[in-house]
Each structure stands twice: as structure tokens, then as C-alpha cells.
Design goal:
By secondary structure, this protein is an alpha/beta fold. Helices cover 33% and strands 22% of the residues. Strands 9-8-7-10-11 form a five-stranded mixed sheet.
Amino acid sequence: MRIILSLLLMIVFYTVGAQTRLKPEDIEVRDSSGTVYPTVIWTRLTASGRYTLRMQPGGKTAILSRLSDLDYERRMDQMPRPPESRFFKTGEKIASFNERDINGNKFNLKELTGKVVVLNFWFINCPPCRQEIPDLNELADKYRDNPDVVFIAVALDAKYDINDFLKTNPFRYHIIDDGRYIASRYGINSYPTNVVLDKQGKVVFHSTGFSMNTVAWVQKSIAAGLNETITR
């Protein structure tokens, strides 16, 4: 997140030609309707990659605009693939687990052979984990009616805390609580970690940490596993 904000500030700096580095709080950001966005909101939106800033004369104000689906797709395609995690190897199968989610649904990784499986390892007090949830939800919604794609989020937190979190922060994956032992089985100690398994249970994508285009690559990997063309 710090890297993204630094890059954003560099873009703003060179755009306005300022002689001193601007801080996010020095910029008044509004949309085309005139609504002013708090710093914590506009920095989060621009970090998602779906929004862009257009500096106004004077260098102290900017207009926030949402990219079209086509422009967003082009931006994602121009970015390098997110760095691979150190916990998995592309092309290899991973150890299975047999657990229930917080709603009582049973998931046995071996029994999911024949489906594309999307895994997310996270915990509540992880800012980058929370930051990517809206985009993960959008992706889960896209495949909501496709029985060949299964979304599972392995959380480190207790069920009570997760349910409390979900009251104001919906996460539309199947969530497994108290999943620290599952994460440790794979040696995961950095979050979020995203993994996509093909229909043979082999890793086709894996990445750790927040990258602006992680979710775009998760979708590409799902589409490849289903042998479909991505539509946005």
C-alpha cells in the first residue's frame, strides 16, 4: 500500500510540476458531481486501479473519475504479473484439507477435483486483506451461478469475530474460520495470499500481498481453467 501511494504521489508531483512533494491530505479530491472525498477514501479508490485523478490548475485540487471497463482492462493488461508467493509452486498440487465454513458447508479439497478452486488466506486486522475484498466480491458475484468455480477464504480469526466483521464488511467467499493450521500447513505467514487451482487441483496462479492487478490475474486464471474468454 505504501508503494502504491508513493507512486500515486509521484504521478501527482510530476503532473502539476510542483517544487515540493505533495502530501495526500494537501489535495482536495472531488468527483464530477462536486462530492469531496476524504483522503482515506480517494487513496483507497485510486489504489484499486479502477479510478484515476486529473489534477486541476493550481495543483491543489483533482477530479476523481472511474475508468470504463475497457480502460480498466487495458490498465491491468499493461501491468506486470503480480509476484508469485513463496508458499506454492505453479503446476504442483497442494495438500488437501477437509473443513466446514462458518455456515456449515463442508469442503474437501480432494473432492473439488474437476472444479476451479479459488483460495484466499486472510485475517481481519490485515489492511491489504480488507482492501481487496470488494474486488474479490465482484469476482465471486461474476461466477456466482457457475458450479464449476468454488471460492474459499481461509481466515485466521474465530467464527464470532468473523461474523461480527461481516455485519459491515460482506465477503462473498465461503469462509473457513480458525484456519491458522491450514495456512501453516502451506507455510503461509504473509497475507493476503491468493491461489487458483485448475480442475486437476494444480496451482495455476499464486501471489502474496496487495497488488493492484491481483484480482484481474485471478480472473484470468479462472477463465483459463474454464477455457473461456474474459468479459467485463
